[in-house]
Amino acid sequence: MPEDASPRLSFADAGPLLIAGALTLDRFANETPVRESPGGAVLFAARTAEAFGIRPLVLTKVNREPLLFEHSYVDGERRLRLEHPPRAPIGAIDVPNGWPEPRTILLCPLIPGDLDVTSFLDRWPGTRVGLLAQGLQRRRLDDGSVRVVGAPSPALLGAARAHVTIFLARDEVARWSPGALSRLASRAERVVVTEGAAGARVINTDGSESRIDAAPAEPIDTTGAGDVFAAAFILGLRAGVVVAGRLAAAAAACEVETLGPAPLPPLAQIATRAGVIL
Questions:
Q1: Which residues lie closer than 8 Å to 83 by C-beta, 6 or more apart?
Q2: pTM score over 0.90
Q3: Which residues of the chain have pLDDT under 70?
Q4: How far apart are CA 109 and CA 41, in angstroms?
Q5: What is the CATH number of the domain that holds 265?
Q6: What pLDDT score does 8 carry?
């Protein structure tokens, strides 16, 4: 039976699902009037889990002053500025004692120092992990502006383990040297590079590659689309990489057609859009 025709697909067994990362306040400086919205990869990932019928365990911290990301565009290029950076990282030590052992983990660092990724990997070395790695590839300058580093960071290389799927965006790997992506993938379960309307690339640990086509969409707000894609892909892996890719693309398409971290459609609607039979 074809992989995408498996009867009665269910993703509830991906839970318990632990999502760890910082919540943010996102400010969109180019909009009139300036819009502010709750944000952070952890929030978009939680919305995705909700659509998949999973109630996630969300581990976060709230500072007295919110972690504020200002988004703007200059000559078509997105610029980020960060105010009120976190004072201490979130770590596995912060997981409450009464929480169940996770079967799936989503790690959502946004900036160096906000999430102790290694502590989670060391505590659960055999658990499936999705690492939304954007925060490991950033640095904050003295004026608060955020820049993407031009090579795999030591933190990213240290997080590349056999049970970890790493998600990065095209602009985060654009300046890497030839072969860097394949070398990173050889240390991990796989690396997925999202490319917006062009879909995504999957680089496997053996160096082989495949593509995921984007689902057609009429974008309103692309913020969080990569986070939704990553969360849907990890949750969808129970049905195989092909189904996971289709569901991820469809979920991301649903996300860009809404403003901010609004609830996603139920899984049945996402699956229909993906051409996947539940």
A1: 65, 67, 68, 70, 144
A2: yes
A3: 1-9
A4: 8
A5: 3.40.1190.20
A6: 58
